[in-house]
Specification:
Rossmann fold, 37% helix, elongated, 23 helices, binds thiamine diphosphate, alpha/beta
Length: 724
């Protein structure tokens, strides 16, 4: 047996500075880094005191002990570069914000703190205290900080949740050939999450300008990294994704700066993503000011050892030894940082003791529900039409309509990209929804790896960075694989970041119920998406509506999910001749048949089925009013049209193919009952498929799914007021 030893080709190096290396830093740059470190340290301790005084609501995850990692790495970036962070990100946020606000030439040794520098610290503190003067109006607080102007795309309370978003931001920079890069900071706890691995993979395969920057402080709450993974040096993981990696000690400020510079230079020169692992230590427990040893997961000796080595001791000492800064200058820097923080505390609180929150800074009463979605101002000038507005029509296959309108956007708007599994294969998707587009737009219609959390999150990051991605999720059930990105991130980002970001993202997914695909490929996810009001939900029942609603979605600054039913894909529909640019309004239902006995609401393919059942109903003496809801998210559902119909009929039945638990019928019925109680003379009724996963067996699947006979019988009973 021949055994060939294989070697990994990527660089994997440990950087350690020696006494002379510090001289590579200019005195000003060294002073800036040290000033940031002092500022972070003073700021975090001020937060802990404010927490004790009950001026901060929620946890305070300080970065005491990790100051140098943020300060030295961020000072190696350029102004336009972007960062994302985790729940522990005050240090990165302050460093990036201050390096943006303060001029490169600002010399902390000589110059006074300019007003906008002080203001930045006030606004950071205000945000963490949940005040209106914060960067996100107090919505985000400590764990969801965002300051786009300074390049902080967002910090994230879901461990690893921000990493795919960083990949999306890097994707946007790459598409724009901007020469800028993104740094995603996270802790050691993140590297065992799928979102981390999926992002590494995407960054590797698409050579994204991204630095994965791990602050390895050894513990995720009280669990040591060695308890969580067999990989001791976490940067070893970079090899698996063809990334170069560097290891530095978090107390070696010069090495941190140099590592970041090395990675950034290589990326700007066209290299792919890099990985940096900084070993560091958090002084206190996970949150608050108690030492970790008090909880028994680490020893006092370990903590003392850290304190002897910590960067806030080592770096000033090295600067003094190198005769770069005098004791007096060091003391002045520290005092300047302390004054700046004190000023921020004074401007957000009333002097104590104990200190109290300045009540005039609380966000306005009554604003809690504001900003979950866009105001709609971006659609204000859109002229909406209906099919009846067009005289000249031609027939078009539903899936061709999807491809045609998507192609139209790719043609007209460079910000549009199409991402998904197989969207660029077979000439345009597994089911033809992108037919012809990969050939025309090879750089913007991209096959993704099978990596839903990764590419959905990447879509979000790209959308937050000015692109308009169209992301296909091959089967709706796979939404659950990307659930964090879809529901914790996309659905909440606008509100969580205080309305500071748009999310112009379209997600398309093809419902494949009734094909024998079984329990994991047959979901209608309407009820799932409807749980999150950040999502707009569209379920077109024909090609005309598809094109018009897609155009509205692409003009909207909100995320919109398109539920496309597979039975419609090969059907032909009338569409306007040579017009792919018209818009159909969100939130406008369509009455497709009038009737006085019962109001029947549905959407997507069910609309077609109901229309086909209308003659049978008529034979049984029922005049049903059929309404195609078209838009299904509750904030923009067209209750008015339904109410108008109920005034006539007095009875509502919602008909959905979705499984009971994933349908919207009961919730719809509850709202309708409350709003239109006076019109109703029977309870609202929700008709759905059984509340079970579909089976592969043909007979069992048919048994689970709503059949025509049940629909007709139910509507007859409803018309006769015999439904309970
Ligand atoms: C997905 C997820 N699981 C669990 C948590 C709860 N949690 C918050 S922080 C944290 C530890 C994270 O450790 P690490 O990534 O090493 O960062 P550090 O706190 O050390 O900075 C945990 C478990 C969470 N926020 N998100």
């Amino acid at each position: 047996m021949n055994r060939e030893k294989l070697v990994v080709e990527q660089r994997w190096e440990r950087l350690r500075s020696d006494a002379d290396d510090i001289k590579q830093l200019s005195v000003r740059r060294a002073a800036q880094i040290l000033f940031d470190m002092y500022l972070i340290n003073e700021f975090e301790h001020a937060l802990l005191r404010l927490k004790t005084d009950d001026c901060i609501w929620g946890p305070v995850h300080t970065s005491v002990g990790q100051e140098a990692v943020a300060a030295a790495s961020i000072r190696a970036l350029q102004r336009g570069d972007k960062i994302t962070g985790s729940h522990r990100a005050h240090h990165q946020f302050l460093s990036k914000t201050m390096s943006h606000v303060l001029d490169e030439e600002w010399d902390p040794l000589e110059d006074d703190m300019p007003a906008d520098g002080s203001e930045a610290v006030v606004r950071t503190l205000g945000e963490i205290m949940g005040l209106a003067n914060g960067y996100c109006g107090g919505r985000g607080g400590s764990m969801h900080l965002r300051n786009l102007e300074a390049g902080v795309l967002g910090t994230n309370a879901i461990v690893a949740g921000g990493i795919p978003i960083a990949a999306g931001a890097a994707f946007a920079e790459k598409q724009a050939a901007s020469g800028r890069l993104v740094v995603s900071y996270f802790g050691d706890g993140a590297v065992n999450q799928g979102a981390f691995h999926e992002s590494c993979n995407l960054a590797g395969v698409w050579k994204l300008p991204l630095i994965f920057f791990i602050e390895n402080n050894l513990y995720a709450v009280g669990t040591h990294s060695d308890e969580a993974t067999a990989v001791h040096l976490l940067s070893q993981r970079a090899n698996a994704y063809s990334m170069n990696a560097l290891i530095v000690d978090g107390s070696d400020t010069v090495a941190i700066h140099e590592a970041t510079r090395t990675a950034a230079d290589d990326i700007r020169g066209g290299g792919g993503p890099w990985f940096i692992e900084a070993f560091c230590y958090r002084k206190y427990h996970h949150a608050g000011d108690t030492p970790g040893s008090a909880f028994g997961y680490r020893s006092k000796e370990e903590e003392q050892q850290f304190e002897q080595n910590e960067a806030l001791r080592a770096f000033p000492e090295a600067l003094r030894n190198a005769a770069m800064l005098s004791d007096q200058q060091l003391a002045r820097l520290k005092q300047k940082a302390a004054d700046c923080v004190q000023q921020a505390v004074d401007s957000c609180t009333n002097a104590g003791p104990p200190r109290t929150v300045r009540s005039d800074l609380w966000p306005a009463a009554g604003s809690a529900a504001e900003g979950v979605r866009s105001s709609g101002a971006e659609l204000a000038d859109v002229h909406y039409v209906e099919a009846s507005d067009f005289e000249a029509t031609t027939s078009m296959v539903f899936s061709d309509a999807i491809a045609a309108v998507t192609g139209r956007w790719l043609e007209n708007d460079q910000r549009v990209v199409v991402l998904g599994e197989e969207v660029a294969s077979f000439g345009g998707g597994a089911y033809g929804a992108t037919r012809g587009l990969p050939q025309r737009f090879p750089d913007r219609v991209l096959n993704t790896p099978i990596s839903e959390a990764g590419f959905v999150g990447l879509g979000l990051g790209a959308a937050m960075s000015g692109m308009r991605p169209v992301v296909e999720i091959m089967f709706p059930d796979f939404s659950l694989v990307a659930a964090d990105q879809l529901f914790n991130q996309i659905a909440k980002a606008r509100h969580m970041y205080g309305g500071t970001t748009d999310i112009p993202l379209v997600v398309r997914t093809r419902i494949a119920t009734g094909c024998g695909y079984g329990g994991q490929h047959s979901m209608d996810p309407v009820g799932l998406f409807a749980l999150f009001p950040g999502w707009r939900i569209v379920a077109p029942s024909n090609a005309f509506d598809y094109i018009g609603l897609f155009n509205s979605a692409m003009c909207s600054n909100d995320p919109v999910v398109f539920l496309e039913h597979h039975t419609l894909y090969k059907n032909r529909y009338e569409v306007p001749v040579s017009d792919l640019d018209y818009c159909v309004a969100f939130g406008k239902a369509r009455v497709i048949q009038s009737g006085g006995d019962v109001t029947v609401v549905s959407y997507g393919a069910m609309t077609e089925r109901l229309r086909a059942l209308a003659p049978t109903l008529q034979q049984r003496g029922v005049a049903a009013e059929l309404i195609d809801l078209r838009t299904l998210d509750f904030p923009s559902l067209d209750f008015a049209t339904v109410g108008e119909s109920l005034r006539k009929t007095g009875s509502l039945v919602s008909v959905e193919e979705a499984a009971g638990g994933q349908s919207i019928g009961n919730r719809l019925g509850a709202i309708i009952s409350a709003r239109y109680f006076d019109y109703l003379d029977a309870p609202c009724y929700s008709l759905t498929s059984l509340d079970v996963p579909n089976s592969v067996s043909r007979v069992l699947e048919a048994e689970a799914m709503l059949d025509d006979e049940t629909i007709v019988d139910t509507l007859v009973k409803a018309a006769e007021r015999r439904l309970l």
